[in-house]
Amino acid sequence: MATTPTSTAAKSETPPPRSILRDTAFLRLWAGTTASGLATWALPFVLGLAVLHRDLGAAGLGLVLAARTAGFLAAVAVGGVLADRHSRRAVVLWSALAAAAAAPLLALGLGRSLVLMTAAAALAGAGQGACRPAFQALTAETVDPERRQQANAAMTMAVRGSTLTGPALTALLAAFLDIGTLLLGIGLLWLVAALVPGRPAAATGSATAADPAAPATRAGFRAEFLEGIREARRHPWFLAGLAALVAVIALGYSATSVALPLISRDRYDTQWVLAAAMTAYTVGALAGALVIARLRPRSQGWAAFAGLAAYGVAPLSLMLPVHPLVVVAAYAVAGIGIELFNVPWFTATQREVAPDKLARVSSLDFLVSYGLAPVGLALIAPAIDAFGVTPVLGVCAAACFLVPAAAALAPTARHFARTAPAPAPAPAPAKSD
């Protein structure tokens, strides 16, 4: 009796990728990154509590936070070069251990030595700065390309979640623990960041400087850093994205950071608007990360720039005499938009940049984004005093809308890639008996 041959089409199909939440290597990396993000967020909050407890003066707080920022900016470029030159896991280990060592020094200097606290804060910032590009590159080493967007979304959700729940948790702990103990707790978080991530297996398309194929001799630090800049210049979409980020962070984010407390106080006569708007921004960012974890727009770059431009609704809402709920809703939209940009941006960088230069290019991203934010914060307040809050907010809102729109016109910006992605193959027709 003749039999119908069994179709092998289903057997030849590529199985769907395993969920990123079932990948032990990624979960360890996620835990380490989350711990470092929580420690980074917690330090200024705990130091603010020290001011409330009169263990640290306002001027001292400004000096300590400035030292941390300086340490971060000095180390982020160095960390990028080191992470491309050596094992990225080792860079994470030693930089996180340096940040962990700063915590007891901060506790020791609290109320005793501002000089010691300033030096310790610079060390903490250096550890944070050195590990950021290494963590970015480790994600590409640990996760295969098909799941990196989900991985980056999971990373940003952890950061936003800690920002949302962290203040309440820290305030609760402060009711039972003193400031010195809280600072030591930050050191423990950095130890988790140092020790929990594992060494990734040989990941697809992520050769590093430690690979056997890497050159035996290396150029000097300056030459390697300049090599990273040249790699960044090979990608017009990356340069355009940096310009858009500078406009949104240095102008939009800085303006709203200064203006929101003033408008909450003067226009609405309540601090509720300030708290609700910042909470809505974080909740919106969580929602944006959830959406972009699975969303794959056909023109990914254009969609990302549209999300970044959405931040303009935040300063726009502060310009107008609207109901406070409109301000809260505008901040939620801004939060959604920022993650619709961030996740594809990180994913495209991991995909498009040469693997052995990924950490250096990522360090440029952090250097420009974080480096110009204090400049914007320093200039916005004098500008408001000179020209008034409404004109300054209007200029900043226009910049948030127009600069990302102009960046979207750059070559390769449409797809965050040199070539458009190939369309997904149509499923093979089922065979009939």
Strand content of the residues, in percent?
under 5%
What class do helices, strands and sheet pairing give?
mainly alpha
Helix % is over 70%
- Alpha-carbon distance between the termini? 15 Å
3D shape: globular
Largest sheet: none
What's the helix count?
Answer: 15
Overall pLDDT, averaged? 85
The poorly predicted ranges are: 1-12, 203-214
The radius of gyration over CA amounts to: 23 Å
Please report the total strand number as a whole number.
0
SSE series: HHHHHHHHHHHHHHH
Short structural summary:
Helices cover 73% and strands 0% of the residues.
Please tell me about this protein's structure.
The chain has 15 helices and no strands. It has 433 residues and is mainly α. It starts with 8 loop residues before the first helix and ends in a 26-residue tail after the last helix. Mean pLDDT is 85; it is low at 1-12 and 203-214.
